[in-house]
Amino acid sequence: MTDSSTKLMLRALAxxxxxxxxxxxxxxxxxYLAEYRETRRQAPNFLAFCxxxxxxxxxxxQPLRRYGFDAAxxxxxxxxVPDALGQTVExxxxxGPVLEPVRSAGDLDRLSADRTIGHMAPxxxxxxxxxxxxxxxxxxxxxxxxxWTVATYMVExxxxxxxxxxxxxxxADPETFGRLIDLLVEATxxxxxxxxxxxxxxxxxxxxxxxxLPEAEFRRWVIDANARIVANLRAACPGVPVIGFPRxxxxxxxxxxxxxxxxxxSLDATVPVQWASDVLQPLCTVQGNxxxxxxxxxxxxxxxxxTRILDVLGRGPFIFNLGHGILPPTPPENVARVVExxxxxx
Length: 346
What we know:
Elements: H1 8-13, H2 34-40, H3 46-50, H4 53-67, E1 71-73, H5 80-85, E2 89-92, E3 96-99, H6 105-109, H7 116-119, H8 121-133, E4 139-145, H9 147-156, H10 164-172, H11 174-197, E5 202-207, H12 215-236, E6 242-246, H13 253-260, E7 264-266, H14 273-280, E8 285-290, H15 292-297, H16 299-313, E9 318-322, H17 332-343
Parallel strand pairs: 1-4, 4-5, 5-6, 6-7, 7-8, 8-9
Antiparallel strand pairs: 2-3
Helix pairs in contact: 2-4, 4-8, 9-11, 10-11, 11-12, 12-13, 14-16, 16-17
C-alpha cells in the first residue's frame, strides 16, 4: 500500500487545500464509453454484471485508463442491498429497476440482514482486486445508497416522480416504516465496513432522493440514518473518510454536514458555489458540482462553469466532480476537456 500522502483524494478529505484538486466523476464507468458497452454485453443482466468480479473490475478500470482520475469507485449499484436482504430485484431493459414492493410489517418480516454479507461476496472480491490493480496514487472509493434512497425503490417498486407510496407510509406509520430504515442502517453499515476491510479507502453514501423530504422528515430519515452509518463505520474502521451526498438538500446541506459527521459533502448542481465556499467549506471538504447536462453539451458553457467552480471552491479543501452522474449520451471528449482544465491548475 502506498503512503496516503501521495493520494490527492485522501489529502483533500483530510482538509488540505491543494494546488490542483483531485477529481473523479459519478458514473465515470458507464454507457458513455464504448468499452463499457462492449463489456456490458458479456453479462446476462445488470445484477449479474455487478456480481461478476472480472467484469466489474474491468469497467471500474476503464475510465482510469482514459482519463487518469484520482479515484476509482467500485462498480456496483445501490440496489444490491435490497437484493441481498431477500427482496426481488430486476433490471429490465428500457424500464430500469423493478422490485417487488415492500409496504407493510409482513413484507418487512420476509427480509433479513443475516445473509447480506455472504450474498455480496463477489462484490467484496471486486473491491479486493481493485485495491491491488488500481494505480498507486489512485484512491479506491466504496459506496452504498443511504437508507432513505434505497427505501424509496424498495417501497415504490421502481423509480418514482412523486414518491407517494413511501411518503404515505413514512408519514402515516413512522414506527413501522422506521423498522425498514433500521434494517437498512444495519445492512448498509455491515456492507460498507466489509468494503473497507477488503481495501476501500473512502466511502460515499448516496442519498439521491433526500431532497423530496420536508425538514422534519429529512432530519429523521436522512440526517439520523446517515449519522448512524457514519458512527458504525468509524467504530469499526477508524480514520476512513466518508463523503455524504444528500442530493437536493438545499439549505439543509449545512445541518447534514454538522450532524452526520461526514468528512466530505458532495453537492448537487443547484448549490451556489459561493454559498458552499462560505458555509460548507469551513466545516468539511466539498465535492462537486458541475451540472451533468453541461458536461453533455460541452463548449463555452461547460468551460465557463468549470472555471467558476475551480476558482471559487479551489480556495479550500475540494474535490472536483459532477452534481450527479454522467449521462449516457455524453461525448467522451467533453470529459477529456474537463480533465485537461483541471490538470492545468496543477
